[in-house]
Amino acid sequence: MNRRDLDFILYEVENVEALCQTERYQHCDRATFDAALDTAHQLAHSHFHQYNAKGDRHPPQYCQETDTLTLLPEHVAAHRAYSDAGFLTTSMDAEVGGSQMPVAVSGAVGLHFSSANAGFSAHFALNVGAAKILQHHGTDEQRAHVLPKLLSGEWCGTMCLSETHAGSSLTDIRTTAHPQPDGTYKIRGNKMWITAAENNFGGTIAHMGISLFLVPKHALSFSEEGVSLGDRPASSSAWAGATGGATGHLVGEPNQGLHCMFIMMNELRFQVGLGGVGPALAGYLYSLQYARQRTQGRSPLCRDPSTPMVPIIEHSDVKRMLLLQKAYVEGALGLCMYTAGVIDALATTADAAARSDKLLLLELLTPVVKAWPSEWCLEANKWAMQVLGGYGYTQDFPLEQLYRDARPNMIYEGTSGALDLLGRKASMGGGAALKLLGAAVAEDVAAARAAGGAPLAEAADSLEAAMQRLQETTATLLGAAAGGEVEVGLSNSHAYLTMTGHTAVAWQWLRQGTAARRGLLRLEAEGGDASADDEAFYRGKLHTMQWFTRQELSKTEGMAQLLCSLDDTNVSMRGNWF
């Protein structure tokens, strides 16, 4: 974990300390935040990182006869240590026993664990998501009986949506709920790809499935039957429907389950994006350390074989691979933390109009923050492996596992998010969400220009042009859809998602570059007390901003050209031509 970078984004870019002046977070200060981050760092190293490879090579063992799944003792201990440290309650409201910290700080805490052990740490977000559903939509009995158990780690949560025949097409699910005289329901059907569907942590599992039911793994005092795992030898698949059907308890109003579930789904979309950053950050730091230590080859200007070999970090193509990782990972982290800041603003803003604007902006950012880090941080992992060459694909180093553990993030919570962004979010409020994004970008462009310096001026000009392209491209695509060319307008939605994501990440790099420029000016003012490490850190930020602007943001020109041409080759391709 690069704590210097995390502190920079939290305190110098996002200024989370300002939240301590609000009523919601007045019980917090920077010492509170730093203590949580320090504890997370220690716990992530001692209980998650050290057993990451062991857990990968010794997967959970499922026994179909007893319907039990056994994880390593180290996993059980890690779950208990995480729960006992109170990290399940970090972002929860104080009224339900939570620490009520800003989402940005809670996300930074979680980043330590996803960097240390991405595969195992992913299930904690499900507890929090299930707890938030019950807090907002559960009955008094559910809040009293189940919510404390989820937040203590005694129980675990899941989200049961997909079915084998339907995937993410939730309108086609077949699971049924039959009302019973005692007010419960019999749930019959099959669910697939359920993360953390079974474990041996000691308590039961609270399965949450539309529309909307709490279906316990084990019988509660007021229920009859639970949920059976089925025949998949992993904790990623569950089915509801033992002999006569599992017992479900209605959460919220009937037939409003998807609406209630969006609390959990949007929470997890943010967590998936942040979860994509974790293993990519670890991969970047591993490959950076390796590049500094590994000697191989010489400068192209030196052909004398008797001279010492140089560290590979001196080779321009290795610098390219490291710059790419740094740009993707730290840019994606900035996007996640900015989005967390929007969530925190929603929780601390009383003005109705301001809240409406923040909510619209969050709706637009959510599919981007889920999808862009999932895809492009995986790309960063790919180049981390490449820096190590042959070593990168061996178990001598953790890079190949980091890549595998990061790959599911592109599948979690909607396989791409592209149709959601273009088909729904971009048109929300008559295009108001995109206008709000444009206004936020314009504000930061102005701040960058005011900060001064040629790199910032170049990046600000490029971002301003890219934002204009994005708005014009969106208008063209939505116009085509409104004119009846719906399928053609949506056929290149992934390119639109990439274009939007690249523009958003370039925006975050401009914000980081502006903060770095201010940091350098402060160091200059301090004179002899200036830190050489701090100066290198800030210059690295400005240089990486420049790299992303020139080498990645520039690609949005080609994306805009493709999208505005309304290219129909995806649509017109016939199935029997493949």
UniProtKB/TrEMBL annotation:
It comes from the Eukaryota. Residues 443-573 form the Acetyl-CoA dehydrogenase-like C-terminal domain. Its cofactor is FAD. This is Acyl-CoA dehydrogenase. SUPFAM superfamilies: Acyl-CoA dehydrogenase C-terminal domain-like, Acyl-CoA dehydrogenase NM domain-like. One of its GO terms (molecular function) is oxidoreductase activity, acting on the CH-CH group of donors. Signal peptide: none annotated. Residues 71-154 form the Acyl-CoA dehydrogenase/oxidase N-terminal domain. The lineage of its organism: Eukaryota, Haptista, Haptophyta, Prymnesiophyceae, Isochrysidales. Belongs to the acyl-CoA dehydrogenase family. PANTHER family: ACYL-COA DEHYDROGENASE, ACYL-COA DEHYDROGENASE-RELATED. Keywords: FAD, Flavoprotein. InterPro entries: Acyl-CoA_dh-like_C_dom, Acyl-CoA_Oxase/DH_mid-dom_sf, AcylCo_DH-like_C, AcylCo_DH/oxidase_C, AcylCoA_DH/ox_N, AcylCoA_DH/ox_N_sf, AcylCoA_DH/oxidase_NM_dom_sf, Diverse_Acyl-CoA_DH. Residues 255-417 form the Acyl-CoA dehydrogenase/oxidase C-terminal domain.
